[in-house]
Amino acid sequence: MLLQQLAGLLAGFLYKTYAATYRYELHFEDPRDRKTFFDDLSTKEPNPGGNLIYACFHQDDLICLPYFSEKNICILISRSKDGQILASAVEHMGYQTVRGSSHRGGVAGLLAGMKKVIAGHKMTIAVDGPKGPIYKVKDGITAVSEKSQRPIVPVRGYPEWKHVFERSWNKATLPLPFTKIRIVIGKIGFYTTESLEEKMRSL
Questions:
Q1: How far is C-alpha 7 from the chain's CA centre?
Q2: Which residues contact 193 (CB under 8 A, 6 or more apart)?
Q3: Mean local confidence (pLDDT), 103-125
Q4: Are the CB atoms for 153 and 186 separated by under 8 Å?
Q5: 3-state DSSP assignment of residue 120
Q6: Mean pLDDT throughout 172-197?
């Protein structure tokens, strides 16, 4: 456990330094969502009734993590050994972590996440994780949204220069240094699992 934590801290430090070269620009599907989005990200303390749930694909993890860092967002991460490394890394980048997934500790993880959201914490969930299939949205995020009555923010990221790990199930994408990254924010609202998948595939 200690080795995984140390590896995660080192990975978080190195990636945070590497990602400092990225240049982000945001595009909103509905410009009226701009204020809601930035108001949520600027709120560091729990904000019951005003917090949002962010949805992304695992493919976009390395693209989006630096942009949303230091925003006091909770992130759902699996309880595996790899998950421990990732948890330590993202905690170094300013995230809170909730442990669990659809494969190990899924129910406990989602319940803990739901309690965080109801208490006013922002949360992000990789909707096709932890092992895919790619672009297939699982039910967890829509269940949390429905029970907490908090809307979902669909998010996709598109770097101009990138390396794609073709052998990974999620086609993980690493932006190259100094690249411009376009973050696309879909319509903020309430979704079914099917409509959220359709929305995220369309962004």
A1: 21
A2: 137, 138, 139, 142
A3: 81
A4: yes
A5: coil
A6: 98
**Whether pLDDT at 107 is above 90:** no
Cβ atoms of 47 and 36 within 8 Å: the answer is no
Q: How many helices and strands (H and E) does the chain possess?
A: 7, 9
CA–CA distance, 18 with 180 (Å, rounded to integer): 14
What is residue 51's three-state secondary structure? coil
Tell me what the pLDDT averaged over the chain comes to. Answer: 90
Per-residue pLDDT tens digits for 48-58:
989 999 999 99
Give the SS3 label for residue 171: coil
Greatest CA separation found in the chain?
Answer: 46
Cα distances from 136 to residues 65, 133, 183, in angstroms, run: 20, 6, 20
- Domain ranges for the chain: 2-202
Instruction: Give phi and psi for 198, each to the nearest 5.
Output: -60, -45
Residue 198 in tokens: 């359709």
- Res 190: pLDDT: 98
Residue tagged 């993880």 (tokens): 109
From 184, 178, 180, 177, select the one nearest 24 (Cα to Cα). Answer: 180
pLDDT at position 198: 97
* Residue 162 contacts residue 176 (beta carbons within 8 Å): yes
Question: What Å distances lie between residue 61 and 12, 120, 153, 172, 182, CA to CA?
Answer: 13, 23, 15, 8, 14
Task: Compute the distance between CA of residue 25 and CA of residue 121 in angstroms, rounded to an integer.
Answer: 25
